[in-house]
Amino acid sequence: MNGTTEATGSHEGPERRVRVVLVDDHRMFRTGVQAEIGRTEETGVEVIGEAADVDQAVTVITATRPEVVLLDVHLPGGGGVEVLRRCAPFMGAVENPVRFLALSVSDAAEDVIGVIRGGARGYVTKTITGADLVDSVFRVQDGDAVFSPRLAGFVLDAFASTDAPPVDEDLDRLTQREREVLRLIARGYAYKEIAKQLFISVKTVESHVSAVLRKLQLSNRHELTRWATARRLV
Amino acid sequence: MPAATTRAASSLNPDPEEPPQRKLYRSADGRLLGGVARGLAGHLGLPVAWVRFVFLGLFFADGLGALLYAVFWIVVPLGVGGVDSPRSVFETAPDGRRRLRKPDRGQVFALVALLIGAVIFVGNVDMGSKADRYIWPTLLIGAGSVLVWRQADNARRARWMEVGSRRRVLHLARGLAGVALVGLGLAGFMVVRGSAAQLGNVLTAAIAVLTGIALLAGPYLVRMTQDLSEERLMRIRAQERAEVAAHVHDSVLHTLTLIQRNAEDPGEVRRLARAQERELRNWLYNPEGTGKDEDDEPETLAEAVKRAAAEVEDKHGVPLEVVVVGDCPLDEKLTAQMQAAREAMVNAAKYGGEGGAVQVYAEVEGRTVFVSVRDRGPGFDLDSVPGDRMGVRESIIGRMQRNGGTARLRSVPGGGTEVELEMERTSDERDH
C-alpha cells in the first residue's frame, strides 16, 4: 500500500508492462481508472479491454487474455463471483495465467470474502490512490496476494470465530506467524515494515500472505457458511 | 381505526383530551356480537347496557331490533377500540375500560339476557303452526350467518393485530360451525316445506347451479385476486423506492449540494464526502442501521471505535481507516480504553494527518482488547515533549495505567507514530 516509490521506481520504463482488463458496470468509474492508471508510458499499465457485465467480461477476457483483471464485486449478471467461476480455466493456465484483483466499493464482508474464495488474488477498495493501484496490479501480476487492511481484518475475523476446529480441518487454520502478518497488515503496515518488525525477509512475508490466501480459497465451505450465518450475512 | 387516529392527529382541536370529530364505528373491543351496540354507545355517549336493552326491546317489535342490528353490522365499519390507538373513540362509554380481554360481568349478563329474550320470543311466537315451523330454520340461518360475519370481522382485525396459530384454529372452527348452521337451517326449510322427498333433486339442481356460477365467475375471481396481490406488490415496491428516494434526497443530494458550494475548499469537500460515504455505507450494509448516528451511547466495542473515529474524522478532516476484528460489550475499563484511543486518534489526526489516512485497528482476542492507532506523520520523541504537555502522558498512558491496562508509544522520527493500547476485559468478576 505504501509502495508508491517502489511502483514508480522499479516498474518504470517499457521493460515492465502489464495488460489489464477493467470490469465495472459504471462507465464513469472505468473512465476514471483508465485516466488514472492507463497512461502506459508512465505507469506501464496497458488497459486492453473493458466490460460492464458478466457476459461481456467473459468474452473480453477470453478474447484478450490479459495478465490482470480489475474486477468489480457487484456486476449485473451474477457479480464478480460469476466472472471468476466462468474464467476459472484461465486462472490455472500454465502459460499466461489471468489473475484477478477485486476492486470494490462494497463494505460487506461476504462480498469481499466471496471473491477471494472465488480465486481473486486480492482486494482493494475504490478509494485507493492511482499509484497504489498500479503497485497492486504489478504485485498481482507477480503472483503475489494483495491484502488491504480491511481485507486482512475480514480474514482475521473469519478465521478467529471458527474456534475449536476439528482435527481434520487443521489445514485450514492460520499459523501464529500468518496471524501476526495479517494483524500487521490490518494495522496498516507495508510488507517492508512487517518484515522489519518480525525480523523476517519481505519474501517470507509474501509467502505468508500467499499461504493465507490459499487457505482462504481452500478453506472449508462449511466453516465460512457458519461464520456468515452467525453474522446474519446470508 | 387508522382513519380515526390520523384525523385525531391532524385535528386542530386545541384540547388534546377532547376526542375530535366523532365518527361511528363498531367496536372491536369487548363486543358481544358485531360491536354495534358498543360502537353506538361510544358514539352517543350512553352506557352500553342501555343501547343493548333498546336493541333487545326493539327485537320484540317484530324483530325490528335484529334487523336494525344487522343493518348496522353490514354498513358500519369495524374500529379498533383502544387496542392499538391509545385515545379511542369508545373511551367515553362508562364501562369502556380499555383492555377488556376477558368477558366482564356486564357482558355475561347481557348474553344471558339475550338468551332469555330469545327463548321468550320463541315461546311467544307459537301462535300459528304454519309460521312456527319456519322459526327454527330462520334462527339457525341467522345464528350461522352471525358466526360467519364475525369471522369476517376477525379476519380484518387480524390484519391489525398478530393472531396466534392456536386462535386461528378456533377461528376456522367457528367459520365451519357457521356454515354448518346455515346449511342446517336451509335444509330445515326444505323439510318444513314438505319437499323432503325432493331433497335429492333440489340438491342436485343447487349443486349444478353453483358449479355453473363457479365456472363462469371463477376465472374472474382468480384474475381479480391475482391483480389485487400484484397491485399490493407494486405498492410495496413503490413505497420502498420512495423510502430510498427520501433517504437519497435527505442525505446524498444535500451533501452534493454542499460540495458544489464548497468546491474551492478541498478539505471541506473531502470531509463532506467521507461523512456521507460513511453514513450511506451504514445505511446500506447494516440491516438495522438508520444511517444516522444515534444519539445514545454505543454498547459494543466495535460501535464505540467506529463512532470515535467518525467523530475525529469529521472534526479534523483527516480520513481514518478503521478495521475491527471481533467485538464485545463495553465495560468500565473498556470505556476508559476507548477514551484513550480517542485521544490517540485526535493526536494522530492533528499531528500526523499529512502523511495520509490514520489506521485504527481494534481486536478482541479472548479477554484481551487491543487497539492500535497509527499515523504516517513526522513522528516525535516522547522524551522531548515538555512535561507540561499532558495530552499523551495523562490522557493516554496515565488513563490506561489507572485502569489496569498498558499503553505503548512507538514513534520513529519521519516514520510515523503508533499507539498501542491493551486492556483486559472484566467479564464477570469485578476486581476494582
From TrEMBL, chain A:
<protein>
    <submittedName>
        <fullName>LuxR family two component transcriptional regulator</fullName>
    </submittedName>
</protein>
<feature type="domain" description="Response regulatory">
    <location>
        <begin position="19"/>
        <end position="141"/>
    </location>
</feature>
<dbReference type="InterPro" id="IPR011006">
    <property type="entry name" value="CheY-like_superfamily"/>
</dbReference>
<keyword id="KW-0805">Transcription regulation</keyword>
<keyword id="KW-0804">Transcription</keyword>
<dbReference type="Pfam" id="PF00196">
    <property type="entry name" value="GerE"/>
</dbReference>
<dbReference type="GO" id="GO:0003677">
    <property type="term" value="F:DNA binding"/>
</dbReference>
<dbReference type="GO" id="GO:0000160">
    <property type="term" value="P:phosphorelay signal transduction system"/>
</dbReference>
<feature type="domain" description="HTH luxR-type">
    <location>
        <begin position="167"/>
        <end position="232"/>
    </location>
</feature>
<keyword id="KW-0597">Phosphoprotein</keyword>
<feature type="modified residue" description="4-aspartylphosphate">
    <location>
        <position position="72"/>
    </location>
</feature>
<dbReference type="InterPro" id="IPR000792">
    <property type="entry name" value="Tscrpt_reg_LuxR_C"/>
</dbReference>
<keyword id="KW-0238">DNA-binding</keyword>
<dbReference type="GO" id="GO:0006355">
    <property type="term" value="P:regulation of DNA-templated transcription"/>
</dbReference>
<dbReference type="InterPro" id="IPR016032">
    <property type="entry name" value="Sig_transdc_resp-reg_C-effctor"/>
</dbReference>
<dbReference type="InterPro" id="IPR058245">
    <property type="entry name" value="NreC/VraR/RcsB-like_REC"/>
</dbReference>
<dbReference type="InterPro" id="IPR039420">
    <property type="entry name" value="WalR-like"/>
</dbReference>
<dbReference type="Pfam" id="PF00072">
    <property type="entry name" value="Response_reg"/>
</dbReference>
<dbReference type="InterPro" id="IPR001789">
    <property type="entry name" value="Sig_transdc_resp-reg_receiver"/>
</dbReference>
From TrEMBL, chain B:
<dbReference type="InterPro" id="IPR003594">
    <property type="entry name" value="HATPase_dom"/>
</dbReference>
<feature type="domain" description="Phage shock protein PspC N-terminal">
    <location>
        <begin position="22"/>
        <end position="77"/>
    </location>
</feature>
<feature type="transmembrane region" description="Helical">
    <location>
        <begin position="134"/>
        <end position="152"/>
    </location>
</feature>
<dbReference type="GO" id="GO:0016301">
    <property type="term" value="F:kinase activity"/>
</dbReference>
<dbReference type="InterPro" id="IPR036890">
    <property type="entry name" value="HATPase_C_sf"/>
</dbReference>
<keyword id="KW-0808">Transferase</keyword>
<feature type="compositionally biased region" description="Basic and acidic residues">
    <location>
        <begin position="422"/>
        <end position="432"/>
    </location>
</feature>
<feature type="transmembrane region" description="Helical">
    <location>
        <begin position="198"/>
        <end position="222"/>
    </location>
</feature>
<protein>
    <submittedName>
        <fullName>Phage shock protein C (PspC) family protein</fullName>
    </submittedName>
</protein>
<keyword id="KW-0812">Transmembrane</keyword>
<feature type="transmembrane region" description="Helical">
    <location>
        <begin position="66"/>
        <end position="85"/>
    </location>
</feature>
<keyword id="KW-1133">Transmembrane helix</keyword>
<feature type="transmembrane region" description="Helical">
    <location>
        <begin position="40"/>
        <end position="60"/>
    </location>
</feature>
<dbReference type="Pfam" id="PF02518">
    <property type="entry name" value="HATPase_c"/>
</dbReference>
<dbReference type="Pfam" id="PF04024">
    <property type="entry name" value="PspC"/>
</dbReference>
<dbReference type="InterPro" id="IPR007168">
    <property type="entry name" value="Phageshock_PspC_N"/>
</dbReference>
<dbReference type="InterPro" id="IPR050482">
    <property type="entry name" value="Sensor_HK_TwoCompSys"/>
</dbReference>
<keyword id="KW-0902">Two-component regulatory system</keyword>
<feature type="region of interest" description="Disordered">
    <location>
        <begin position="402"/>
        <end position="432"/>
    </location>
</feature>
<dbReference type="GO" id="GO:0000160">
    <property type="term" value="P:phosphorelay signal transduction system"/>
</dbReference>
<feature type="region of interest" description="Disordered">
    <location>
        <begin position="1"/>
        <end position="23"/>
    </location>
</feature>
<keyword id="KW-0418">Kinase</keyword>
